[in-house]
């Protein structure tokens, strides 16, 4: 097919060459240019019109005009071309050839009339337009019917398409660029230039395509006359078609223009209606005679008249009735209101007057009479606002005149010039407000000379720091001559440029407050002096009381360790117990005082919480047992093993609360439950079944020296400080304490403290520290103290020398080099601090090795500890002396190595099966201890055996059983059993090694207790004991009847009591110790009614 379409090498003798008629050629180009011009008119119209339907119609008209021009130009150009052969045209193909041109024009015009057309879109439009022109041309050529064969030169064929596209792009780009630089008034120039370029594109493509056409003849030549005759008839046809197309395009343009004008008119009317409907003012139109022609809805809203009621009436209807007869609303009168807004009163339809602002403007219409537009603004809200502002200003002025402070506004200058000041300034300064505003008196002249620079400095500093306000206090001189204190609080005022204009503020008379502050400062000075005296008193009281207590406790311990008769041992224990109780009371009072002053410091350390709890519970175990109470410790498994916190203070709180619970509980139980709370807090719960507390007394039990009932101090003893100190300590540790109670049923105390969880920590073992023999100087002004220390330290193998005061200590330290000096701080004359400083200075001067000095005092004040350290003392030991603590302090001071071990890895190899010394110390006698051991082993042996045979998970019941047995084992000094149970509780597993150890412990305990020997048990519950027991009961009854308490009788009853009745006898003894004779009588009746 391409072989017939393209002719690449035709025979020259067969080619037919045509000729052109210059007139028709020019006409064809002119037709193309004119069609392009009318097309551009349609395109411009389409671009300017926003209505989509009119836009599409305009583009359609432009495409029709351009396609008709292309088609007409082509066939006129064909008529201008003459061949020496007969040429005819297929009418249907000729007519159809216009459609490619129409489609190309329609699509390309749609592309270039879109907003924001890019260069690539313009190029695409040029390609589509060129393709349409080319398709029309070559389809029109195919309509030719002639004898010679028609073919095309490939090169010229392609060139014709390129020419069409290139010239079309030039035409589109030329029009686009020229529109950017030519105003709308010169748009015709742009259209002409664009038409020339577009017409050139059509013509250039046509005549380039004609050059590409090759007519190859293979028949005789037909006469020229036939061709000419046919050409004339075809020219008429083309002319007619061209006229029809032009008329159609003009008709389309006219219709588009009409629809556009109609749409614009409708849009303008809609906009005007919308403006009138939404205007915030009433709008009326008036002719030169004052007749209302129209009004918007706002007129009805403002004046009550609807549009139908006002049309055709004179505008005077809006005037008050008295003015309607005086004023004639005509052109002359209306001219007065032109361009000027006036506030007048208008008559509402309902008869009341409405304040309005009326503005009138004239509309100049050609060949018509005068026409006016009136704008009515409702001033009702504005007038109401003005009235409210006036009333508000009156109220503010009244407030300013009556407020205690002086309101002012001033400039920032050296005189503080007042632009406004409230009248009450006369009360403050003695001068009237008018005198300040007029400049007769300047406020700066009233400020005391010493304070003037301060006032300026405060304001300047506030401005430099960018603050919006300032506040200062200074003194002013009243007109009468006396001084007043003023509080000046002001805010800065700025202009629109951000420059400070002045200050607005208030002046307050604070003279009374200043006088009160002076009085308070004087009172504070007196209070501080009293507090210092109180502190000095506490220090002296601590020293004076602890000093004899040191001797009492120390020598009692020495006596107890010596060979004593039973009665003597009993009396010594009583002395020790009473002295420790007195020391505990003293510590409570001192702790309370320090807590009130905020001078009690917390010493935090790492500790094992289970050991701390076991230690606390063990302390009260025997006391609870004597009263027949069940003492339980329950630890949640959510608890960590080791914590960091103030363990000593935590122990103190637990001792206070647990001691109270046991003290106020006659029967039943006391439970200590510990579990993890939120975050790092630990919750402690102490519940008892005691006497309870009334609800109205719950809030006061944490107050100093208060108990739930005044009779309690007489019945149970105590100062009422325990709960107070507990609350203060818990709050100091960052926790919270509270209580719930029911009278007669018991109480529950709760407290939480924050404790930080830690891993296993290292600490010193609880072992006896062995010191090498040392040469020690003891300096103390109390002979009892030096004797006690000498006795205790000499028993350890040390050489002791004694100094009675500081001066003697200095002389002995100069005469001899000691390994250690124990120095009391408070001594008459030269105290321990001065003596230590003198000794240290002497050693430095003589280049001697420094002798460690340990401060030894009964003081509990932190200031004394700080002073001791500042004086050069190496350590601090408190009185009363605890020899174990003192020994450890000496070892640490002299850097004597003490073995350390981590919590959780303590070995049991050094533990004893039974620590008899500790057991006898705890139970008072070996016989009593053996009875309790037998009772424990009889009741718990099978449970222990079952426990060590346990396999599988450690449930809560199993762990509770382990903890219970462990606690009793600790109270019975069963060290190896306690250590094994502690290890199992921590690891929550039992291996074969532990089972083997346990088997050995069970076997040894069987031997000790004698469960395998019935004779031992029988001896423990012998008839002789029963006989003595029965014989002692009447004596106890006689003692109760006489309301007397004899310790010898009670001890004899307790020693002879069989194990079965042991708990009842202990409860009886405890009731008598508390002077509860009725309770004691009930227990005794039960014992005497039993068949022993």
UniProtKB/TrEMBL annotation:
Instruction: Specify the domain of life of the species encoding this protein.
Output: Bacteria
**Which GO BP annotation is one of this protein's?**
regulation of DNA-templated transcription
Q: Which reaction does it catalyse?
A: ATP + protein L-histidine = ADP + protein N-phospho-L-histidine
Stretches assigned to coiled coil: none
> Could you identify this protein by its name?
histidine kinase
Major place of residence: membrane
Which keywords fit this entry according to its UniProt record? ATP-binding, Cell membrane, Kinase, Membrane, Nucleotide-binding, Phosphoprotein, Transferase, Transmembrane, Transmembrane helix, Two-component regulatory system
């Amino acid at each position: 097919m391409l072989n017939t379409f393209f002719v690449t090498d035709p025979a020259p003798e067969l080619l037919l060459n045509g000729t052109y008629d210059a007139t028709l050629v020019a006409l064809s180009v002119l037709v193309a240019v004119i069609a392009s011009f009318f097309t551009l008119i349609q395109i411009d119209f389409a671009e300017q019109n926003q209505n989509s339907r009119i836009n599409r119609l305009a583009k359609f008209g432009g495409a029709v005009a351009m396609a008709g021009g292309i088609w007409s130009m082509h066939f006129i150009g064909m008529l201008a071309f003459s061949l020496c052969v007969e040429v005819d045209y297929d009418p249907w193909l000729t007519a159809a050839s216009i459609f490619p041109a129409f489609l190309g024009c329609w699509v390309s015009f749609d592309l270039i009339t879109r907003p924001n057309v890019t260069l690539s879109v313009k190029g695409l439009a040029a390609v589509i337009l060129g393709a349409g022109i080319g398709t029309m041309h070559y389809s029109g050529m195919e309509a030719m019917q002639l004898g010679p064969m028609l073919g095309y030169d490939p090169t010229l064929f392609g060139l014709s398409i390129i020419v069409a596209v290139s010239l079309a792009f030039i035409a589109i780009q030329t029009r686009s660029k020229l529109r950017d630089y030519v105003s709308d008034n010169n748009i015709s120039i742009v259209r002409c230039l664009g038409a020339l370029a577009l017409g050139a594109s059509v013509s250039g493509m046509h005549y380039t395509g004609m050059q590409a056409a090759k007519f190859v003849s293979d028949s005789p030549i037909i006469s020229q006359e036939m061709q000419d005759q046919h050409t004339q008839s075809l020219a008429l046809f083309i002319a007619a078609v061209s006229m029809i197309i032009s008329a159609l395009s003009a008709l389309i343009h006219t219709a588009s223009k009409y629809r556009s004008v109609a749409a614009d008119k409708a849009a303008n009317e809609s906009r005007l209606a919308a403006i009138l409907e939404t205007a915030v003012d009433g709008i009326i139109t008036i002719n030169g005679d004052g007749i209302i022609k129209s009004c918007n809805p706002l007129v009805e809203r403002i004046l009550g008249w609807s549009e139908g009621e006002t049309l055709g009436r004179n505008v005077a209807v809006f005037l008050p009735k008295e003015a309607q007869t005086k004023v004639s609303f005509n052109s002359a009168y209306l001219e007065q209101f032109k361009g000027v807004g006036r506030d007048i009163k208008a008559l509402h339809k309902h008869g009341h007057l409405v304040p309005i602002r009326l503005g009138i403007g004239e509309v100049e219409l050609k060949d018509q009479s005068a026409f006016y537009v009136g704008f009515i603004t409702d001033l009702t809200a504005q007038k109401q606002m003005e009235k409210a502002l006036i009333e508000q200003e009156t109220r503010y002025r009244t407030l300013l005149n009556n407020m205690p402070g002086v309101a002012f506004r001033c400039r920032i200058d050296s005189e503080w010039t007042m632009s406004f000041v409230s009248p009450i300034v006369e009360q403050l300064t003695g001068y009237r407000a008018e005198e300040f505003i007029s400049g007769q008196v300047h406020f700066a002249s009233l400020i005391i000379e010493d304070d003037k620079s301060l006032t300026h400095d405060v304001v300047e500093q506030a401005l430099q720091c960018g603050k919006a306000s300032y506040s200062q206090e200074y003194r002013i001189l009243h007109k009468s001559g006396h001084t007043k204190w003023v509080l000046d609080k002001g805010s800065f005022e700025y202009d629109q440029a951000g420059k400070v204009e002045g200050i607005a503020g208030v002046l307050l008379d604070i003279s009374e407050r200043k006088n009160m502050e002076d009085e308070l400062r004087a009172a504070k000075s007196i209070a501080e002096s009293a507090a210092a005296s109180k502190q000095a008193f506490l220090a002296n009281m601590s020293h004076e009381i602890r000093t004899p207590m040191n001797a009492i406790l120390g020598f009692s311990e020495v006596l107890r360790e010596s060979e004593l008769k039973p009665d003597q041992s009993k009396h010594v224990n009583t002395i020790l117990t009473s002295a420790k109780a007195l020391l505990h009371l003293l510590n409570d009072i001192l702790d309370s005082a320090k807590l009130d002053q905020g001078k009690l410091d917390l010493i935090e350390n790492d500790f094992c919480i289970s050991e701390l709890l076991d230690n606390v519970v063990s302390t009260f175990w025997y006391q609870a047992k004597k009263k027949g109470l069940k003492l339980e410790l329950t630890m949640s498994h959510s608890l960590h093993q080791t914590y960091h916190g103030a363990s000593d203070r935590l122990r103190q709180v637990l001792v206070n609360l647990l001691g109270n619970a046991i003290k106020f509980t006659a029967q039943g139980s006391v439970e200590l439950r510990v579990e993890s709370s939120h975050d790092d807090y630990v919750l402690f719960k102490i519940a008892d079944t005691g006497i309870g507390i009334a609800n109205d007394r719950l809030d006061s039990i944490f107050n100093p020296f208060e108990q739930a009932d005044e009779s309690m101090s007489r019945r149970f003893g105590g100062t009422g400080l325990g709960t107070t100190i507990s609350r203060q300590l818990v709050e100091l540790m960052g926790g919270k304490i509270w209580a719930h109670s029911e009278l007669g049923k018991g109480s529950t105390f709760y407290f939480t403290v924050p404790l930080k969880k830690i891993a296993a920590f290292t600490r010193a073992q609880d072992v006896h520290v062995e010191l090498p023999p040392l040469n020690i100087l003891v300096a103390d002004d109390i002979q009892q103290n030096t004797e006690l220390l000498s006795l205790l330290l000499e028993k350890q193998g040390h050489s002791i020398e004694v100094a009675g005061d500081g001066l003697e200590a200095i002389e002995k330290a100069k005469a001899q080099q000691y390994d250690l000096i124990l120095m009391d701080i408070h001594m008459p004359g030269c105290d321990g601090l001065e003596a230590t400083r003198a000794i240290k200075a002497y050693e430095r001067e003589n280049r001697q090795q420094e002798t460690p000095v340990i401060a030894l005092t009964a003081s509990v004040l932190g200031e004394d500890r700080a002073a001791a350290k500042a004086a050069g003392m190496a350590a601090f030991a408190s009185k009363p002396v605890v020899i174990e603590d003192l020994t450890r302090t000496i070892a640490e001071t002299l850097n004597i190595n003490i073995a350390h071990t981590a919590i959780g890895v303590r070995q049991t190899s050094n533990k004893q099966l039974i620590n008899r010394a500790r057991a006898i110390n705890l139970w008072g006698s070996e016989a009593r201890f053996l009875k309790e051991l037998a009772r424990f082993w009889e009741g718990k042996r099978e449970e222990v055996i079952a426990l060590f045979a346990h396999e599988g998970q450690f449930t809560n019941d199993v762990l509770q059983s382990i903890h219970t047995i462990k606690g009793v084992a600790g109270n019975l000094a069963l060290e190896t059993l306690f250590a094994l149970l502690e290890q199992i509780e921590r690891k929550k597993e039992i291996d074969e090694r532990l089972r083997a150890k346990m088997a050995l412990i069970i076997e040894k305990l069987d031997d000790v207790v004698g469960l395998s020997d019935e004779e031992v048990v029988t001896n423990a519950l012998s008839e002789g004991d029963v006989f003595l027991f029965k014989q002692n009961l009447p004596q106890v009854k006689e003692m109760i009847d006489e309301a007397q308490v004899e310790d010898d009788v009670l001890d004899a009853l307790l020693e002879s009591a069989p194990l079965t009745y042991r708990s009842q006898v202990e409860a009886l003894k405890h009731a008598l110790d508390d002077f509860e004779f009725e309770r004691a009588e009930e227990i005794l009746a039960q014992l005497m009614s039993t068949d022993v």
